[in-house]
Write a structure and sequence with these properties.
Length: 107
Amino acid sequence: MGLGECGIMISQVTDSKTGSVNDLITPGGTLTIKGSKLKIAGDNPMVGVTFEDGAGNAVSVEKCDLVVNKPSELIVQIPPLATGTYQLAVCSQYGISSLLSRSLTLL
């Protein structure tokens, strides 16, 4: 019957200021997210890029802070974040009506 529909895949996250890959991020700088089915699209309130700390507080990237919004690459302005560990989450309805999401832990 063939392969089923796959969700979002994050293959690499790079901090533009430090060059750190899949690790440290710099608030106020930009973050390049590479993978597949990343394009932010859809009208569900969950759609977008968010950073969630260990206490469950989430900071969303505003749509105007999406510098590049392509299926294989997102470049986002990192919002002001306190020092800590964050879960980066990307959620979209790109190409389908249901939600696709993926997350990655960053410092």
